[in-house]
Inverse folding.
């Protein structure tokens, strides 16, 4: 009896210490907090670096090198998230031989926090994707794919919230239209919903209901379609929504040397970024926060 | 103050601290090159190694032999490498198609641009198949009316490219690129007959402007990648002996 009481007391004390620690940080108005967002997209099973004879990307890329880079950034700032915007699969024999197992295992070793689903992730069918899930120690988000009538049901959430150093980060996922792009036999009963309304809804939930300090869209809908300017894309998404701070894109293999700054529906800045394909680059966006209530609302300084 | 009270207090503190939003004051964005300047993480490298060795062992095991080098540019309207691919698609896919439907494929049509590499003289490995066909296109069989097969011949006549066809199909053009004769298994094309034409899903979906595949009577998706067709064909064929022949030719005066 005495022992039990002791345990209860010590638990309560620990909880209090934990919370007061958090409280102190939150109320410490002068302290700046930094959140680092790292991202890849369309890696397409490129595990090894390109060979020295490759005409375009000689000696570039490689997961083992990316691991070194991610590790050093995490050491510098533990409040880091590592995200992938889809098309993890398909592109080298590693996928044909192992069906994505190695890709997921390596991403888990690199401690990826979250990914969204690209069209090529259906290349071994939705069952092929489902089969590899046990190898992924990270979650998948997609807000506009409805997997209710598929094996992926309950395995993909619309969004995920992370808390890093007291900063609440909401990340939601978006996928590209599958009809015409992927064989129906592959995606089966997956339902694609138009991304704009979904994104408006998601950003409202994350910003207003969940009170997130940072809202990120992990998108595989494509950066921009020059030949089909009316097709929904990251740039049109940025303009048609509010409360999204960063759109991390994929699908179009767009090599942006630096993030694009777009104005959202209420005139505020949104960053849109994409780092091409094949793991040739790592995207890095640092967000600095101040909890000072007097911070002016005109927006953040953007250095790109 | 009981433990319950302490927990309530904690909860209130949590709510309060969460309610105070932090504002973004500064954003810095950049991209970082992944190149030789970064050392490889040894743990990751060691983890990949057995997978890499297994893949390379498989890819580099010898499955056939090429006595010559074959290129898609070494023929006018038909090439040895194209004939090899179309005939391989016929023989490998027809087994699957026949088992499934009881019917036989009448002929195969592929695209010249779909041959992505030469076949080099010497040993053939699975890697050869990955080089020739790096894409994941698969075989589909389309039931087409003779009228559309005639459109197909018109397309080939106008394209004047060595789009690979299998040996059951014969097309002769006049010296001014008009269709002189077109046969399937030595018989004239009948307008109302249904023909089973095997192709790849890229062309079926309108690639290379091959619009004659629509509308059609039916489509059979074989779930058989062209690359796997080649690998299976290589494994069965000790020495490749593809040749340029008369399946698609143009008469010269």
């Amino acid at each position: 009896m005495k022992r039990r009481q002791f345990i209860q007391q010590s638990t309560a004390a620990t909880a209090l210490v934990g919370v007061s620690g958090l409280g102190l940080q939150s109320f410490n108005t002068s302290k700046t907090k930094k959140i680092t967002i790292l991202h890849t997209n369309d890696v397409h099973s490129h595990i090894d670096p390109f060979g020295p004879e490759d005409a375009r990307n000689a000696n570039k890329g490689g997961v083992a090198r990316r691991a070194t880079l991610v590790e050093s950034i995490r050491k510098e700032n533990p409040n880091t998230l590592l995200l992938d915007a889809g098309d993890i699969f398909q592109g080298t024999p590693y996928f044909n031989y192992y069906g994505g197992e190695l890709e997921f295992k390596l991403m888990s070793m690199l401690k990826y926090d979250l990914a969204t689903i690209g069209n090529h992730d259906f290349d071994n069918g939705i069952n092929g994707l489902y089969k590899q899930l046990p190898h992924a120690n990270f979650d998948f988000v997609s807000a506009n794919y409805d997997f209710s009538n598929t094996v992926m049901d309950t395995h993909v959430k619309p969004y995920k919230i992370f808390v890093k150093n007291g900063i609440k980060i909401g990340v939601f996922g978006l996928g590209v239209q599958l009809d015409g792009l992927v064989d129906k036999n592959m995606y089966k009963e997956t339902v694609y919903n138009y991304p704009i309304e979904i994104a408006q809804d998601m950003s409202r939930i994350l910003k207003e209901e969940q009170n997130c300090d940072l809202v990120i869209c992990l998108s595989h809908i494509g950066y921009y379609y020059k030949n089909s300017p009316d097709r929904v894309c990251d740039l049109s998404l940025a303009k048609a929504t509010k409360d999204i701070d960063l759109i991390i894109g994929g699908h179009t293999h767009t090599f942006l040397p630096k993030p694009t700054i777009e104005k959202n529906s209420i005139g505020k800045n949104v960053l849109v970024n994409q780092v091409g394909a094949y793991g040739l680059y790592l995207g890095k966006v640092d967000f600095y926060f101040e909890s000072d209530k007097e911070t002016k609302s005109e927006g953040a300084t953007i250095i790109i | 103050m009981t433990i319950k009270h302490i927990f309530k207090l904690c909860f209130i503190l949590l709510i309060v601290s969460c309610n105070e939003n932090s504002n973004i004051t500064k954003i810095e964005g950049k991209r970082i090159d992944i190149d030789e300047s970064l050392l490889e993480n040894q743990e990751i490298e060691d983890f990949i190694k057995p997978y890499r060795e297994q893949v390379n062992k498989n890819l580099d095991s010898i499955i056939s032999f090429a006595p010559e080098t074959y290129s898609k540019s070494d023929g006018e309207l038909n090439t040895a490498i194209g004939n090899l691919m179309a005939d391989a698609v016929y023989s490998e896919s027809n087994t699957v198609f026949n088992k499934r439907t009881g019917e036989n494929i009448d002929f195969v049509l592929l695209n010249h641009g779909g041959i992505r590499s030469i076949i080099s003289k010497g040993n053939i490995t699975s890697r050869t198949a990955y080089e020739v066909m790096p894409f994941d296109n698969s075989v589909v069989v389309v039931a087409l009316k003779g009228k559309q097969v005639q459109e197909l011949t018109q397309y080939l006549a106008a394209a004047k490219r060595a789009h690979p066809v299998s040996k059951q199909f014969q097309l002769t053009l006049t010296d001014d690129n008009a269709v002189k004769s077109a046969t399937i298994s030595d018989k004239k094309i009948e307008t109302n007959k249904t023909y089973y034409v095997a192709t790849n899903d890229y062309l079926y979906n309108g690639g290379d402007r091959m619009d004659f595949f629509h509308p059609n009577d039916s489509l059979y998706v074989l779930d058989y990648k062209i690359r796997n067709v080649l690998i299976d064909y290589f494994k069965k064929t000790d020495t490749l002996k593809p040749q340029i022949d008369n399946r698609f030719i143009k008469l010269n005066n």
Remarks:
- The radius of gyration of chain B is 28 Å.
- Chain B touches chain A through 49 residues (CB under 8 Å).
